[in-house]
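Researcher: Here's a chain I'd like modeled. Treat it as a single chain, no partners, no ligands.
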Amino acid sequence: MRVIAADDIIKSITDALQFVSYYHPRDFVLALKNAYRHETSPSARNALLQLLINSKLSAQAHRPVCQDTGVAHIFFKMGMDVRVQGIKGVPTPSLQSLANLGVAGAYLYPENPLRASMIRRPLGDRSNTGDNTPAIVHIELVEGDALDITVVAKGGGGDVKARYAMLNPSDSVADWVVSQLPGMGAGWCPPGVLGLGVGGTPEQAMLMAKRALFTPIDIQDVRNKSITDPVESLRLEVFDRVNALGIGAQGLGGDHTILDVKVEQAPSHAALLPVALMPNCAATRFINFSLDGSGPAVFEDPDPEIWSDIPDALPVAQGRSVNLDTLTKQEVGTWKAGELILLSGHLLTARDAAHKRMVDMLSRNEPLPVSLQDRAIYYVGPVDPVKGEAVGPAGPTTSTRMDKFMPVLLEQTGLLLTVGKAERGPVAIDAIKKNKSAYLVAVGGAAYLVSKAVQSARVLAFEDLGMEAIYEFVVKDMPVTVAVDALGKSIHWMSQARN
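Model: Modeled as a single isolated chain. Structure tokens:
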């Protein structure tokens, strides 16, 4: 019987979540560098460079690579000969309770606070739990006396794009997967990894698709050997066909939509072929470790050499400098889709909850707490700052969630610009074109790099919404790209395909 102290489990989970918040896995950095070297699209290449610089800066500063610091998933593989030694007051704690304590310790860590995204009642008041608990716990009991743990911080942008289908046994899994990518948009912040779960039951397939993501990137090793395994054949086929679609980094068009494809399979009913798809984003965060009773896990920092050939900042940009405080609709009308813009001045922030509240106020003819006339709104829910920061990591959130609010806000408030990530849908693009507005994109997954452009930040309204409150940032040379111009032209692959 192997005895493992509950405190060691708690501390290991806390330390693991802190570790993955600012260190990308080595294999991911190398794969991203390889994509950057071979990318032929200038827009996608710029996005890849921003992701690499962000990875380097986050590793150096021990600050999150992304403002969405994820939902904590804890996978326990526990030997039947393992006994957990209790903590004070709880002689036989559950693994769920230990995971929750570990998560709370990580997300409330004062030197690197992480954004809490978990809510209590999705169908109720949707109040934030404040410490990112509860953890999502999966437990597998196996033979032996080992305790293997995988700790994951999974961002919402990837999970929201999950797909599931019950295929016929004779159907092509690869055909189905490739057919899903165009409709997924770029809100999952490609390039990343696709996880596929094949077989089992519907719920097993979804879990396998997610679990498959948490292994090292090795697609090039698979390509360099003789393939006889149908799983590896499927990986290569999907990898090549998805990248041939030309969606590219951030959906900007290009050669590298995904960096790998991972597959798990399980026995299933002869008449069924369950298939699930789960993407991991450019904020890939997970770590695997084992506990043997000798103490908490110790995580070794990656060799800084993997970032040594990455610059510390973007090269001097040739983009257009824009003063948000003097911006006019006439000036916005001169911008072209694909143009690089450097924003300076006062920038508002708002996400889903703030947008809904503002639109509800307008429907009741109530004045808004903040004037939006000739202003710009950035879709972001930032991480809390630490000493010396104006704001914590503050990358963009998926803009399509705000699409339904666009007609009302653009027509009734004088809002001039919106800034976010990924493509806009037809409702938003039509509103932008009708009101001679524009939509700009920052790079999703480059949150710490973006935050360097923020000189100051203060809450203006809806403070009760926490990270979804309306802030006012003062920014200097914040790098963005014109994604939809005043004529309604979009640079995103998905919008182009749709039109």
